[in-house]
UniProtKB/TrEMBL annotation:
This is Cadherin domain-containing protein. The chain crosses the membrane at residues 361-384. SUPFAM superfamilies: Cadherin-like. InterPro entries: Cadherin-domain_protein, Cadherin-like_dom, Cadherin-like_sf. Residues 4-38, 39-150, 151-247 form the Cadherin domain. It is found in: Membrane. GO terms for cellular component: cell-cell junction; membrane. Its main location: membrane. PROSITE patterns: CADHERIN_2. GO terms for molecular function: calcium ion binding. It comes from Glossina palpalis gambiensis. Gene3D superfamilies: Cadherins.
Length: 499
């Protein structure tokens, strides 16, 4: 399957429900997870009888390998695995054509040779395939009685742990190519993972696991029923990042204890561990890197073993009692893999502490306002009391002045002289009472200013305090004006009666 289509629908909970549809098309891209493969498991060719250099013709077809990842089709490069016979031959890296480089004598390669050809991906050297090319020499002297032997005593190969079962890993050429030899692996453990074919190729029969075994060392036994031969094989397994990190729990919840923050505001929150998350990776050599993500992730930090600590320098910006975070574990494999888990932190301790601190500030503010209001009310009471005292003092003085003025008014004596002729009047004074001089000229009355003196008023003023002098003086002036008006009214009324 290279692609598929999914129909998605988003629907609300209304009545009737409304929805919207869309189509998601997923295109699957091929991954580099397959080794190259030769079109044939083995090839054969004949060496020239005269030993002249030149290209060798392989059967049943030219050597060719392909990348099994069809979506990638990585280019391949051919090479010959080193052995004691490779000095005579060369293979073209792109076409796979084998060429005899140097002339060979009649005594050389009399029993032929077996070459191991390797096809490797140019972009990934860990992806390769092997095949064998059996070379025979025409007219050569065959000595089947010679002892059987491998072309080399030790074979070494690196192999990825994700190599598919059934792949040919390594070829083991002998000095008797093309013969029906029997191969076996004496080691009971490694014989479960590997098998040797009739042509001496090592085949993988069980999946490899780098985390369980990083290296396979075993011996291969070959026999032609006459003689035996052994070779040592070392296969080093290369790690593949085939495990994602895993958390122990699917959801972590932590709470900050009240005792940590409510007892004293002076207790520092730096270094306060609020919890621990546990993560592990199934790959042997991978190291995990932990991090936190979320809106308030800056308030916390996490170390490499999963301990979560609080960072209070930005705590004043927090206005929530519950913080939601995402813990992410990322491994060091190639390519790296990661996984995440939700983390919930209940900030009841810090939130309540902040609330208590805010309430304390509010209480202090209210107390200051209350004290200010009390001071204002006290000032107002003092002012009202002072004004009331002043008003009580002023009317008393006014009543005293009016009493003295009444007596003086009663003792006023008016002397007038009526003339029938020219209307000239006369004035007379009696005691200390001022006498108003009036003169009648025809229908007009002329009054002269007199003087009024009250000994009683003078005596009253001398006994008053400095604070009441001004008020008494003003009241006295007003009383004088009223006396003058009353006197003038009395004079008018008498004049009207006499006239």
């Amino acid at each position: 399957m290279q692609n598929f289509t999914v129909k998605l629908r988003a629907q609300d909970q209304g009545i009737p429900p409304k929805y919207s549809d869309t189509t998601l098309r997923v295109v699957i891209t091929d991954a580099d997870d397959q080794n190259p493969k030769f079109l044939r498991e083995s090839y054969s060719a004949e060496l020239p009888g005269d030993g002249r250099p030149g290209e060798l013709r392989t059967r049943p077809e030219p050597i060719k390998a392909i990348d099994q990842d069809e979506g990638i089709c990585a280019p391949l490069q051919y090479s010959i695995v080193q052995s004691q016979d490779t000095k005579y031959f060369r293979i073209h890296p792109h076409s796979g054509v084998i060429t005899l480089l140097t002339p060979i004598g009649y005594s050389d390669l009399t029993n032929g040779a077996t070459l191991v050809v390797k096809a490797t991906q140019v972009d990934n050297p860990d992806r390769y395939a092997l095949t064998t090319v059996t070379l025979t020499r025409l007219g050569g002297i065959h000595n089947d009685i010679s002892a059987l032997a491998f072309v080399q005593k030790k074979f070494y190969m690196r192999i990825r742990e994700d190599t598919a079962v059934g792949n040919r890993i390594l070829a083991l050429p002998t000095n008797k190519p093309g013969k029906h030899l029997k191969y076996s692996i004496p080691d009971p453990v490694n014989s479960q993972f590997f098998n040797v074919g009739m042509l001496g190729e090592v085949i993988l029969t069980k999946p490899l696991d780098y985390e369980k075994m990083t290296r396979h060392d075993f011996q291969i036994l070959a026999t032609d029923d006459i003689t035996n031969a052994t070779a040592d094989v070392t296969l080093e397994i290369t790690d593949v990042n085939d495990w994602e990190p895993r958390f122990r729990e699917t959801h972590y919840e932590f709470a900050i204890p009240k005792s940590q923050t409510l007892q004293s505001r002076s207790v520092p929150l730096e270094g306060l561990m609020i919890g621990k998350v546990e993560a592990a990776d199934g790959d042997r050599n991978d190291k995990l890197e932990l991090s936190l993500r979320g809106q308030h992730a800056g308030l916390f930090e996490i170390d490499n073993i999963g301990n979560i600590y609080m960072r209070p320098e930005q705590l004043h910006q927090l206005n929530e009692s519950v913080v939601h975070l995402i813990a992410i574990a990322r491994d060091s494999g190639i390519p790296p893999r990661s996984t995440s888990v939700p983390v919930t932190v209940t900030m009841e301790g810090v939130t309540l502490a902040q609330s208590s601190w805010s309430n304390s500030l509010l209480a202090m503010f209210v107390a200051l306002v209350a004290i200010f209001i009390i001071i204002i009310l006290a000032l107002i009471c003092c002012i009202v009391h002072y004004k009331s005292k002043t008003r009580k003092t002023t009317p008393a003085l006014a009543r005293s002045n009016r009493g003295h003025s009444g007596v003086s008014s009663a003792n006023l004596m008016t002397h007038e002289k009526m003339t029938s002729g020219n209307g000239n009047g006369a004035t007379t004074s009696s005691g200390n009472v001022s006498v108003l001089h009036m003169k009648r000229n025809g229908g007009n009355v002329t009054m002269a200013n007199g003087s009024y003196q009250s000994n009683a008023m003078g005596a009253g003023i001398s006994g008053m305090g400095a604070s009441a002098i001004l008020a008494a003086s003003l009241e006295r002036e007003r009383e004088r004006e009223r006396q003058r008006e009353n006197y003038a009214a009395t004079v008018r009324s008498k004049y009207l009666v006499s006239s």
